[in-house]
What does this fold into?
Amino acid sequence: MIEPEDTDVQRLIRLKRYEQPPEGFVDDFLVQFQHRQRAEILRGSSIGLFWERVTAFMFGRVTPSMAVAGAAAAIVLVGGVATYLPHGGTVTSTAVAQAAPAPREQASNYREPFSASPLLVLDTDQVLPPMTTPQFAELLSQHFRGGFADEHAYKFNVNGWLDEADTGNRVQAAPLLDTPQNGSAANIQRQ
Amino acid sequence: MNDIAQSSSADEDRDLVERSQNGDTRAFDALVRKYTPKLYGLVYNMTGNRDDTADLLQDVFAKAYRSIKRFMGKSSFYTWIYSISVNMTLNFLKKRGRHVKLSMDDVDNGIQNDPDFIKLTTGPSPLRDVNLHELQKRLNEAMMKLSEDHRTVVTLYDIQGLQHSEISKILGVSEGTVRSRLFYAHRQLQNFLDDFVK
It folds into this structure.
């Protein structure tokens, strides 16, 4: 295809090159560009600085194997959440409350991690009768005098009597004071 | 532009580009200062609006600055920056559609001494009695009637004075396509401006 050279139309159109921006346009344009350029540099550097700090913090702490393990853990976590939510919906406070054992029930089921003293085995199924003050005082005094030789063999029954553990013979705990004034001198009366 | 000047300019560009790639903003400023007048003419004649031209040029240089480190030097900086300008302007024109609001620059007084202008306005020419402002308006309107592709090649070839081969590289089309587009563009312009040219 032959392009005719220098036709009148071309000469005419070529005159458009005399259309020029106002004087000082290039200087103003450059100043405007520099402002924009610096703003972009600052914005880029703030992001770069943050990333640099993150990588500097992580450098030396995260080995490739840790990174793989972390990524795997993240995938498992996300997968778990993704599989849970469609079936179970959202986790509500009601669901959490139902999942937790009731405090009262928990308290009644509670057992001490250690066994009770072999000296006094209390039957907690029944309420112990109140012990009289003299009986308690006698027990204490007996204890501090050396105690019962076979005290390990006795235990209180529900009536405040000490039962002989092995024989089942019941001995009355009161009166226990072994004093000359006390006519009923027998500390322990066998029944 | 003769070969020596062209080579010198290319060397200067290569140096400025290298320094820009190493973070020298003043070197990039020099490139902006050098290419702003040329690219202004390109974008202005494609958009027909001064404000759009200034905004687009800011975007062009901002994009060039962001991409300068990826510029490998396979083509000249001149071709590269022109390609960015043309592509961004064509994208802008597609978004703008046909709602063109002409906003014309002043015509330099140097036109009075231009041989083409003298030849066109002397003798029994229809342009003899046409004032400069009217001529400018008619030329701009005629340009805006062209398709974007045709306007681009007319701008690059007739107004900017680039060679077919350079336009071919900038647009990424064959030289034959460039010539074909020019031929049809000129024919349309002849029709639009038939009362000015015989």
